[in-house]
Structure formats: structure tokens, C-alpha cells
Amino acid sequence: MGIVVQKYGGSSVSDATSVKRVAQRIVATRKSGHDVVVVVSAMGDTTDDLIDLANQVSPLPPARELDMLLTAGERISMAVLAMAIGSLGHEARSFTGSQAGVITDAEHGRAKIIDVTPGRIEAALAEGAIAIVAGFQGVSQTTKDITTLGRGGSDTTAVALAAALGADVCEIYTDVDGIFTADPRIVPNARQIPRISYEETLEMAANGAKILHLRCVEYARRNAIPIHVRSSFSAKEGTWVVHADEVATMEQAIISGVAHDRSESKITVVGVPDKVGEAAGIFRALADAQINIDMIVQNVSAATTSLTDISFTLPRSDGQTAMSALARLQDSVGFERLQYDDSVGKVSIVGAGMRSEPGITARFFQALADAGVNIEMISTSEIRISVVVSEAQVDAAVNAAHAAFDLGTDEVQAVVYGGTGR
Amino acid sequence: MGIVVQKYGGSSVSDATSVKRVAQRIVATRKSGHDVVVVVSAMGDTTDDLIDLANQVSPLPPARELDMLLTAGERISMAVLAMAIGSLGHEARSFTGSQAGVITDAEHGRAKIIDVTPGRIEAALAEGAIAIVAGFQGVSQTTKDITTLGRGGSDTTAVALAAALGADVCEIYTDVDGIFTADPRIVPNARQIPRISYEETLEMAANGAKILHLRCVEYARRNAIPIHVRSSFSAKEGTWVVHADEVATMEQAIISGVAHDRSESKITVVGVPDKVGEAAGIFRALADAQINIDMIVQNVSAATTSLTDISFTLPRSDGQTAMSALARLQDSVGFERLQYDDSVGKVSIVGAGMRSEPGITARFFQALADAGVNIEMISTSEIRISVVVSEAQVDAAVNAAHAAFDLGTDEVQAVVYGGTGR
């Protein structure tokens, strides 16, 4: 029996009762013969409470100190979880990210893992103990300061440890049963996906699905670590995220799921002179302002005007910064005006099967048209088609796409489709 | 200007408002030209809350994990304090005990400092930053696990850092103005002591005075670190604890203060055969049960009986354990019976001046007699006389002693004489 890495999010360890339930689950895995390494997030609202405290003493807390503060959250949850396991008669030892050998760069608040040296974890396992590791944190290779990994950090910690330890599987426990064909809050008969490829999961995550974070899936894909997303509230099998060739052809639907994202805005630069280098100037200014652009569309210019419009989407939180950066360019570039729209949403269909199946785009767009949904922008990859629509039409668009590709079951899901912040 | 180490207890950093006040005080010290190292305890009730949480998941939390859990408390307070200093325009960097180089043995919950290697603190000071260090914690030299130092641990951290850094002074901030001639809750006109020797402070601490812990004073004495005990709520000079020869003769009262202690019990072993080795057997059994004995009195045996009584005091919390250990000896030692009394109190007068002044004992005992206080046990050192009295008579005994040696002022203290747990 090999090593199993399990990750429990904050909602799975929100209080003493849920910590004890998780402890029983961990002990059951240990009893089945596996070596168990557990990555845990901060309990419930701890992180938010600590951020509130920071804001009470400082309008802009220094990033180094904010990381020091926030890592107290996992320190509490991991020690309490180790105690709960101890009271079930099994030895558990907790380790900070630093003790577990999670080495990062020095970018506080959004550090990247650059190495994992889990010598103390291996020693604990060799002595028969269960190892509990603080998620979301590491130690900077250069400054030796404590860092946090930012969003998705605990999931990434789990996958990185699984890779470094040569684990058989990384189990991500959450408050839903797995990855669904669509958000069940929007599509009541959404179906849980039994197996899905890393590539499709990446596209889902990048386009608004909240179960797994992009960097965690990417880390797993690169290191060939199978991820098993499952509920900490039930013993049911969840969703396996694996290499595409491990998803049996008979299981492979044309479309695996429908993702949506309400977190973006759309900016249109109207009346840009249709000359070489103008678009580059615009996107250089946005890059200098540290803004990540998602979709970009440049209209075909009407031959009579030699002017064009450029539209792009970006995180809504960057909207003001981007508009200011662009306004400063107006004279030099000579565009007519800027339009800002923060009532847009993105709906994407994702599926490896679309590679070999013609007519997917037509079927998707026809379904949207039949539902009265107007398409504002389009973007595609090999295994994904995304459209930007009015935010008010997102639900209708998701349902139309879900039905058009027969993704639903006859059952209505009762669960809430949530996400983990870390 | 040299290095100043300041220690703030949990009551000085109980919430965001008090953290900001402490930050201003630290910055003022920095502005006056000193390098500042701050040792901080956990905020307010944090430690109690964490212990409650531990007890919710485990009846007997493993000591290693309890230390991991409790050290989250200082992690929070030190980061928040660093942020508050940052928002005043000064750079502050927080360090865990481990990062600050506080090396301990592996005795979780009551670790001893065996070395301090403050390289990172010195580097921070050299770069102009204020260093904030978590009190009460260190890292085990052998296991590399996080340890806590137990009661008085934060004060001891501060003094140990002051010694390792060659600081000019270790300032211990608390919620009272300094060390008093007696507890002002009992003696309303108790006087604040401006300067007192290490030796007297040790006797005061060992005999119930709660301002400074024994191990902290002992560490300071051994390393000749002046301690300045003062209030975090005022700018007044507090009490300086220094070498005896730095206490000017003209300042030196015969008696420096009156300490009292209500935390002990008295056990009397009645009718012990007056033979060689019997007492040794009794105290061997108590030592094996890890019980610290304070005062011991053996009655002169009446020649006619060849039986004697042995009385001793011990921490009340060890009472049951001691009685059980002794009861098991009854047959082998052959004593008559055991008496247990937990309604006793100890009152001590402490003063280096009593060395050269005859008649102190007589004056003390006469004052007690005049106040109607019955003396149950007596113990003396070169600079201290202690008596055990009935717990109900402790207040009367303290007041009588205080008045007998003219320790009071004409003013009545309004402050509350409290203590710090760490």
C-alpha cells in the first residue's frame, strides 16, 4: 500500500465536531494500510477573522507580516487535527509548510513552490505516524521568511507533496461530491463527472469552475498525480482527474461540462486607427499596469473608415486600473473613446471529444439563439468554446448548453456547488 | 545608544486599540535612538481560547501538538504588532522563537532555553528595522520541534534575548507601575519600589509576588541584565531590578517588601518513628511523585514517645498526588496518620537590610501577635523570613508586617496589582 495525500479545506474543519469527523476519516484510511499525509486549511472563518484584525491596525499591512499572521490559521487547524487523531489512538504529527520542506520564492501572498524536500514527513511516516501539513504556506528559499501561496494554495501544497513523496493519489476533500457538468445551483440536473482529463479540468478551472484551482491541476498534470475530488461529508466516490488516456473512450462525452464566470468585465476601445502597432501599444500599457487580459476581439475594420474597435475581457477587480491606464493613451494612440461594461458573463463548453466531432460550435450557438441569448464575444481553444454574454443571460446560456449536449441526469442535485478559497 | 529589549504581556496587547498604543510606545523608543527588540505574548484571552479548542477534540492533548497550537497565539500578536508599527512609518519584522534563535531542550510545555543565536535579529537591527519576537516559545535542539517555555516564558525570552544581544536593559511592561512593597489590593498604601536587588526580587517571586517569574529574574541575575518593570499604560519610571551593589545604601530599606502566597497546602505526617532515614524515605517518595516541597518543619520529638511530626508545604495542585503517595508509605514507615490543610497562606518579609539589622524577627512576630495572627510554621533565609498562617489571616498578617516596617506611603494606590501568566 502506498502513500495517500488528503487535503481538507476550511469548511471541512470548521469546528471541533467537524475536526473529529475528519480525524475518523483519516484514521480509517490509515487502518486500510496506507501511509497518510494530510494537508489542512485554516478552520472555517479563521483567515477572514485574521484579515479583519490586520485591517484594524494597518490600512495596508506589509505582505511579509500578513503572511506571518495568516499562517497562524493553519497552525491552529493542523495541531487540533493532530490532537483529534491522537485521541483516536493513532499518532499524528503536525508540520508547518517550512518544516514539511515546502520551499517557495519570496513573493509574499502569492508565492510559488520551487522545491519540496519532505524529509521530516518521510521520517514521520517511517515511524508509523500520520503527518499533518499546513496548507497554503511555505518558506522562502532566499529570505527564509514565511510565505503564503495565495488562492488555491492548499490544494497546490497537497499535489506538490504528493509528487515529492511519490504518492498514489491526492484526495481533495470539499463540501460537494466532485466536479459536475455544470453548477447545480444553476442547472438542477447537473451530473457528477466520474473521470475527467487534466486538460479539460484546466479549461474548466480557467473558465470559472471553482472546485479546483488552475495551478493545482497544472502541477498534478505535470507530475502525473491522480487527483480524487470528493466530499468530506460522504463516502461516495468523487471525480478522478487523470491523464486523458486514462479516461475510457466509452466514458468520454463530446462535451464534459459547462463552466461559467461572472468575475470579468469587458472594455471596448472604440475607433482605433487601423495601423501597425496600435494594438500592441494598447496591450503594452495594460501589461505595464499588471493586468491579465482574458479574451480579445478585434473587429474587422470597415474599409471606408480605416478605424477598428478592440474589445477584451479582464478581471472585474482590475477594471478601474485598466480604464485609467488606457485613458492616458488616448492622445498618443488617437482612439475615439472607451466603453466599460461590468455586466457581462462568460459561458464555456469544455470537452476533449470536440476535437473529433464536427458541428459542436453550430450546436452550441443554435442552443444559445433558441434561448434568446445574444453572443458578444467568442473565443476558442482545441477543447473549449467560450462566449461572452450579458450577465443577466448567464443562467439561461448555461442551461441551454447543458441541455443541448445531453449532459444532465434525471435526478436533481440537492447539493450546493461551492468552492474552496484556498 | 544601545539595544533595548521590551516585553509586552497579553493584557498590554489585548485588542487592536492596545496594539496600536504599544506600537506608538515602541516607535517612540526607536526615535530616541535605540535599537529596539520587542518580545510579545499572545493577545488577551487567545491562549485560553486555544486551550479550550484543544480540550474540545482531545481529553489529554499530546504535548508536542499543544505547543504547536499555543504558539499560534504569539504568531498572531507579533505579526499584528509589526503591522501596527509599519503603519506608523517604521519597519518592523516579526520572528518566531525558532527564527529568533531561541534554542531549547525538548520538554514540551516547560522547555528550558539552552542557547540563543539571534543572528536574524541582529541582521534586522543592522538594517534599521525593529525586531518583534514571539515570547514563550523556542525550538528543540534535538527534535527540531516547536516548544513552549511554560509559565514566565515570555519574560524569560526577553531577558535571554537581552543577554544574547548585549542589551542595555530589558523592559518588562505590565498593567501595574512596578514592584510594590506589598499587594495594593491588600495594603492600600503600599509603595512602589524604585530599585531592588535581584536577590530580593527572587525571594519575592519565590514567595508569591506575581510580577516577575523566578526563572526570568534568575536569568537576568546570572547575565547581569537590568530589568525595568513598568506600566504599558503610563510613562512613569517603574521598578529597576539590578545588582545589590547598584541599590544605593540610602535607598536600601531594612525590609523591601512583604510577599504573600495563597497557592500552597500544608501536610503533616503525624507520629513518625524518630529513627534515622524515616524523613528521607518520606521525601524520597514525594520526589518520585514529582512534587516540589517548599517549607519543612520537623517538631522536636518528646523524649518520652520517640515519635515526631513532620510538616511541609507544597503547591495546592499537588495535594492529592502527595497524599496518595504518602498513604502508600504508611505501613513501611509506620507513621500514625496524615493531616491535610489547604486553608493556609504564607507571608514573607524580604530585605537585604535584615542581614545587618538585629531584631527583625522579633519585630515581625510581635506585629503578627498584636494583630492576633497565629504562626503555624516558620522558615528563614539570609534575606527573608516566612511564616505560614491560616489563610483567613493572610491579609491581616501582610498589613501588620507592612506597618511594622514603615513600608507605606501616605498615598493610597488606585492601581490593581495583577500578574502576567506568561
From TrEMBL, chains A, B:
- For this protein, what is the EC number? 2.7.2.4
Question: Which GO cellular component terms are attached?
Answer: cytosol
What GO biological process, any one, is recorded here? lysine biosynthetic process via diaminopimelate
Q: Catalytic activity annotated for this protein?
A: L-aspartate + ATP = 4-phospho-L-aspartate + ADP
Residue stretches making up the ACT domain: 267-343, 349-422
Q: Which GO terms describe its molecular function?
A: aspartate kinase activity; ATP binding
- InterPro entries xref list: AceGlu_kinase-like_sf, ACT-like_dom_sf, ACT_Aspartokinase, ACT_dom, AKii-LysC-BS, Asp/Glu/Uridylate_kinase, Asp_kin_monofn, Asp_kinase
Listed pathway(s): Amino-acid biosynthesis; L-threonine biosynthesis; L-threonine from L-aspartate: step 1/5; Amino-acid biosynthesis; L-methionine biosynthesis via de novo pathway; L-homoserine from L-aspartate: step 1/3; Amino-acid biosynthesis; L-lysine biosynthesis via DAP pathway; (S)-tetrahydrodipicolinate from L-aspartate: step 1/4
Which positions does UniProt annotate for substrate binding?
47, 74
Q: Does this entry carry the keyword GTP-binding? A: no
Record-linked Pfam families: AA_kinase, ACT_9
Q: Which UniProt keywords apply?
A: Amino-acid biosynthesis, ATP-binding, Diaminopimelate biosynthesis, Kinase, Lysine biosynthesis, Nucleotide-binding, Transferase
Quote the record's binding site residues for ATP.
7-10, 174-175, 185
**Function comment:** Catalyzes the phosphorylation of the beta-carboxyl group of aspartic acid with ATP to yield 4-phospho-L-aspartate, which is involved in the branched biosynthetic pathway leading to the biosynthesis of amino acids lysine, threonine, isoleucine and methionine.
The record's similarity note reads: Belongs to the aspartokinase family.
Return the protein name: Aspartokinase
**Which species?**
Aeromicrobium marinum DSM 15272
